[in-house]
Amino acid sequence: MSRPGKKHEKARSMVERKAYKIEEAVVLARKVAHTKFDETLELAMLLGVDPKYADQMVRGTVVLPHGTGRSKRVLVIATGEKVKEAEAAGADVTGGPELVKKIQEGWLDFDAVIATPDAMKDVGKLGKILGPRGLMPNPKAGTVTFDVAKAVQEIKAGKVEFKVDKTSIIHTAVGKLSFDESKLVDNARALVHAVLRAKPPAAKGRYVRSIHICSTMGPSIEIDPASVELAAA
Fold first, then answer.
1. Is 3 inside a domain boundary?
2. How confident is the model over 43-64, as pLDDT tens digits?
3. Are residues 99 and 201 in the same domain?
4. Residue 49, Cβ neighbours under 10 Å: how many?
5. Which residues form the domain of 146?
Protein backbone atom coordinates (compact mmCIF):
# COMPACT_ATOMS: atom_id res chain seq x y z
CA MET A 1 0.00 0.00 0.00
CA SER A 2 1.48 3.34 -1.08
CA ARG A 3 2.05 6.09 1.47
CA PRO A 4 0.95 9.71 0.98
CA GLY A 5 3.65 11.99 -0.45
CA LYS A 6 5.48 14.61 1.60
CA LYS A 7 3.42 17.46 0.13
CA HIS A 8 0.16 15.75 1.05
CA GLU A 9 1.42 14.96 4.54
CA LYS A 10 2.39 18.59 5.00
CA ALA A 11 -1.02 19.75 3.78
CA ARG A 12 -2.78 17.34 6.12
CA SER A 13 -0.72 18.56 9.08
CA MET A 14 -2.10 22.06 8.51
CA VAL A 15 -5.69 20.89 9.05
CA GLU A 16 -6.74 20.83 12.69
CA ARG A 17 -9.02 18.16 14.13
CA LYS A 18 -12.02 20.45 14.45
CA ALA A 19 -15.10 21.60 12.56
CA TYR A 20 -14.43 24.84 10.67
CA LYS A 21 -16.90 27.46 9.51
CA ILE A 22 -17.42 27.25 5.77
CA GLU A 23 -15.52 30.50 5.09
CA GLU A 24 -12.53 29.27 7.12
CA ALA A 25 -12.60 25.87 5.43
CA VAL A 26 -12.53 27.35 1.92
CA VAL A 27 -9.59 29.59 2.79
CA LEU A 28 -7.74 26.59 4.25
CA ALA A 29 -8.52 24.35 1.26
CA ARG A 30 -6.90 26.90 -1.04
CA LYS A 31 -3.95 27.36 1.32
CA VAL A 32 -3.05 23.67 1.52
CA ALA A 33 -3.41 23.00 -2.24
CA HIS A 34 -0.07 21.82 -3.59
CA THR A 35 -0.57 20.79 -7.22
CA LYS A 36 0.18 22.74 -10.38
CA PHE A 37 -3.29 22.30 -11.93
CA ASP A 38 -6.52 24.04 -10.99
CA GLU A 39 -8.08 21.59 -8.54
CA THR A 40 -11.81 21.11 -8.08
CA LEU A 41 -13.34 21.81 -4.68
CA GLU A 42 -15.66 18.99 -3.64
CA LEU A 43 -18.25 18.90 -0.89
CA ALA A 44 -19.45 15.70 0.81
CA MET A 45 -22.47 15.42 3.11
CA LEU A 46 -23.22 12.38 5.25
CA LEU A 47 -26.99 12.21 5.73
CA GLY A 48 -29.14 10.49 8.31
CA VAL A 49 -31.12 8.51 5.76
CA ASP A 50 -31.16 4.91 4.60
CA PRO A 51 -31.18 5.05 0.78
CA LYS A 52 -32.16 1.41 0.43
CA TYR A 53 -35.69 2.60 1.23
CA ALA A 54 -37.33 4.53 -1.62
CA ASP A 55 -38.98 7.01 0.73
CA GLN A 56 -35.58 8.03 2.12
CA MET A 57 -33.88 8.64 -1.23
CA VAL A 58 -32.41 12.13 -1.53
CA ARG A 59 -31.81 13.55 -4.99
CA GLY A 60 -32.28 16.82 -6.79
CA THR A 61 -30.61 19.56 -8.78
CA VAL A 62 -29.24 23.00 -8.07
CA VAL A 63 -27.88 25.76 -10.27
CA LEU A 64 -24.66 26.85 -8.59
CA PRO A 65 -24.63 30.68 -8.62
CA HIS A 66 -21.09 30.81 -10.00
CA GLY A 67 -21.03 27.58 -12.01
CA THR A 68 -18.61 24.70 -11.64
CA GLY A 69 -15.72 26.15 -13.64
CA ARG A 70 -16.16 23.45 -16.24
CA SER A 71 -18.05 23.88 -19.50
CA LYS A 72 -20.30 20.88 -20.11
CA ARG A 73 -20.85 19.42 -23.56
CA VAL A 74 -24.63 19.04 -23.78
CA LEU A 75 -26.40 16.50 -25.99
CA VAL A 76 -30.10 16.88 -26.79
CA ILE A 77 -32.17 14.08 -28.30
CA ALA A 78 -35.46 15.42 -29.60
CA THR A 79 -37.65 15.73 -32.70
CA GLY A 80 -38.94 18.49 -34.94
CA GLU A 81 -38.78 22.08 -33.75
CA LYS A 82 -37.31 21.04 -30.39
CA VAL A 83 -34.05 20.23 -32.16
CA LYS A 84 -33.85 23.81 -33.44
CA GLU A 85 -34.75 25.17 -29.98
CA ALA A 86 -31.92 23.18 -28.43
CA GLU A 87 -29.44 24.43 -31.02
CA ALA A 88 -30.50 28.04 -30.45
CA ALA A 89 -30.08 27.59 -26.67
CA GLY A 90 -26.48 26.46 -27.06
CA ALA A 91 -26.64 22.66 -27.12
CA ASP A 92 -23.42 21.16 -28.47
CA VAL A 93 -24.99 18.17 -30.22
CA THR A 94 -28.62 17.75 -31.26
CA GLY A 95 -30.57 15.15 -33.15
CA GLY A 96 -33.03 12.29 -32.97
CA PRO A 97 -32.96 8.48 -32.96
CA GLU A 98 -29.74 8.46 -35.02
CA LEU A 99 -27.89 9.69 -31.92
CA VAL A 100 -29.19 6.72 -29.92
CA LYS A 101 -27.63 4.36 -32.47
CA LYS A 102 -24.38 6.34 -32.42
CA ILE A 103 -24.17 6.02 -28.61
CA GLN A 104 -24.92 2.29 -28.85
CA GLU A 105 -21.93 2.02 -31.16
CA GLY A 106 -19.65 3.54 -28.52
CA TRP A 107 -19.76 7.32 -28.95
CA LEU A 108 -19.74 9.14 -25.60
CA ASP A 109 -18.33 12.59 -26.34
CA PHE A 110 -20.72 14.55 -24.08
CA ASP A 111 -21.19 15.46 -20.41
CA ALA A 112 -24.98 15.79 -20.10
CA VAL A 113 -28.00 14.41 -21.94
CA ILE A 114 -31.42 16.02 -22.34
CA ALA A 115 -34.34 14.30 -24.04
CA THR A 116 -37.90 15.25 -24.86
CA PRO A 117 -40.57 12.89 -23.45
CA ASP A 118 -41.53 11.65 -26.92
CA ALA A 119 -37.90 10.66 -27.58
CA MET A 120 -37.62 8.53 -24.44
CA LYS A 121 -38.96 5.44 -26.21
CA ASP A 122 -35.63 5.41 -28.07
CA VAL A 123 -33.43 6.89 -25.33
CA GLY A 124 -34.70 4.20 -22.92
CA LYS A 125 -32.59 1.69 -24.85
CA LEU A 126 -29.49 3.43 -23.51
CA GLY A 127 -30.14 2.71 -19.83
CA LYS A 128 -27.28 0.23 -19.46
CA ILE A 129 -24.85 2.64 -21.15
CA LEU A 130 -25.86 6.01 -19.69
CA GLY A 131 -27.17 4.84 -16.31
CA PRO A 132 -23.85 3.73 -14.77
CA ARG A 133 -22.28 6.99 -15.96
CA GLY A 134 -24.97 9.14 -14.35
CA LEU A 135 -26.03 10.49 -17.76
CA MET A 136 -29.49 8.94 -18.19
CA PRO A 137 -32.16 11.63 -18.67
CA ASN A 138 -34.55 11.82 -15.73
CA PRO A 139 -37.71 13.93 -15.21
CA LYS A 140 -36.73 14.60 -11.57
CA ALA A 141 -33.45 16.09 -12.73
CA GLY A 142 -35.19 18.21 -15.35
CA THR A 143 -33.46 16.43 -18.22
CA VAL A 144 -36.63 14.86 -19.64
CA THR A 145 -38.61 17.88 -20.77
CA PHE A 146 -40.16 19.66 -23.72
CA ASP A 147 -38.60 22.91 -22.48
CA VAL A 148 -35.23 21.95 -23.91
CA ALA A 149 -34.00 25.55 -24.16
CA LYS A 150 -34.36 26.08 -20.40
CA ALA A 151 -32.73 22.73 -19.62
CA VAL A 152 -29.73 23.49 -21.85
CA GLN A 153 -29.30 26.99 -20.42
CA GLU A 154 -29.42 25.72 -16.81
CA ILE A 155 -26.77 23.06 -17.42
CA LYS A 156 -24.55 25.57 -19.21
CA ALA A 157 -25.04 27.99 -16.29
CA GLY A 158 -23.78 25.47 -13.74
CA LYS A 159 -26.67 23.18 -12.88
CA VAL A 160 -25.53 20.05 -11.06
CA GLU A 161 -27.41 16.96 -9.98
CA PHE A 162 -26.93 15.40 -6.57
CA LYS A 163 -27.99 11.98 -5.34
CA VAL A 164 -27.28 10.16 -2.11
CA ASP A 165 -25.21 7.01 -2.64
CA LYS A 166 -25.59 3.65 -0.92
CA THR A 167 -23.39 4.84 1.96
CA SER A 168 -25.75 7.80 2.61
CA ILE A 169 -23.29 10.34 1.21
CA ILE A 170 -23.83 13.13 -1.32
CA HIS A 171 -20.60 14.08 -3.08
CA THR A 172 -20.60 17.05 -5.49
CA ALA A 173 -18.15 19.52 -7.01
CA VAL A 174 -18.77 23.15 -6.08
CA GLY A 175 -16.20 24.97 -8.21
CA LYS A 176 -12.49 25.40 -8.92
CA LEU A 177 -9.88 26.56 -6.42
CA SER A 178 -9.11 29.46 -8.75
CA PHE A 179 -12.56 30.90 -7.95
CA ASP A 180 -12.78 33.77 -5.50
CA GLU A 181 -13.32 32.46 -2.00
CA SER A 182 -16.70 34.20 -1.79
CA LYS A 183 -17.88 32.39 -4.93
CA LEU A 184 -16.87 29.00 -3.55
CA VAL A 185 -18.71 29.77 -0.30
CA ASP A 186 -21.82 30.84 -2.25
CA ASN A 187 -21.75 27.64 -4.30
CA ALA A 188 -21.29 25.45 -1.22
CA ARG A 189 -24.18 27.15 0.56
CA ALA A 190 -26.41 26.77 -2.49
CA LEU A 191 -25.72 23.03 -2.57
CA VAL A 192 -26.35 22.60 1.16
CA HIS A 193 -29.58 24.59 0.92
CA ALA A 194 -30.77 22.38 -1.97
CA VAL A 195 -30.01 19.21 0.00
CA LEU A 196 -31.89 20.59 3.02
CA ARG A 197 -34.92 21.30 0.83
CA ALA A 198 -34.76 17.76 -0.53
CA LYS A 199 -35.08 16.19 2.95
CA PRO A 200 -37.56 13.31 2.65
CA PRO A 201 -40.51 13.28 5.11
CA ALA A 202 -39.51 9.75 6.15
CA ALA A 203 -36.10 10.91 7.41
CA LYS A 204 -36.07 10.91 11.20
CA GLY A 205 -33.59 12.30 13.68
CA ARG A 206 -30.53 14.26 12.65
CA TYR A 207 -30.60 14.80 8.89
CA VAL A 208 -27.11 16.21 8.23
CA ARG A 209 -24.58 14.10 10.13
CA SER A 210 -21.40 15.71 8.79
CA ILE A 211 -20.03 17.93 6.03
CA HIS A 212 -16.51 17.89 4.61
CA ILE A 213 -14.77 19.67 1.75
CA CYS A 214 -11.54 18.89 -0.02
CA SER A 215 -9.76 19.79 -3.22
CA THR A 216 -8.99 17.12 -5.81
CA MET A 217 -5.66 16.19 -4.23
CA GLY A 218 -6.03 17.88 -0.85
CA PRO A 219 -6.90 16.65 2.64
CA SER A 220 -10.45 16.51 3.96
CA ILE A 221 -11.62 19.49 6.03
CA GLU A 222 -14.59 19.16 8.38
CA ILE A 223 -17.27 21.86 8.37
CA ASP A 224 -19.62 22.69 11.23
CA PRO A 225 -23.05 21.61 9.84
CA ALA A 226 -24.97 23.98 12.09
CA SER A 227 -23.18 27.07 10.76
CA VAL A 228 -23.70 26.09 7.11
CA GLU A 229 -27.36 25.14 7.62
CA LEU A 230 -28.11 28.45 9.32
CA ALA A 231 -26.27 30.39 6.63
CA ALA A 232 -28.04 28.53 3.82
CA ALA A 233 -31.53 28.70 5.32
1. no
2. 999 999 999 999 999 999 999 9
3. no
4. 22
5. 74-156
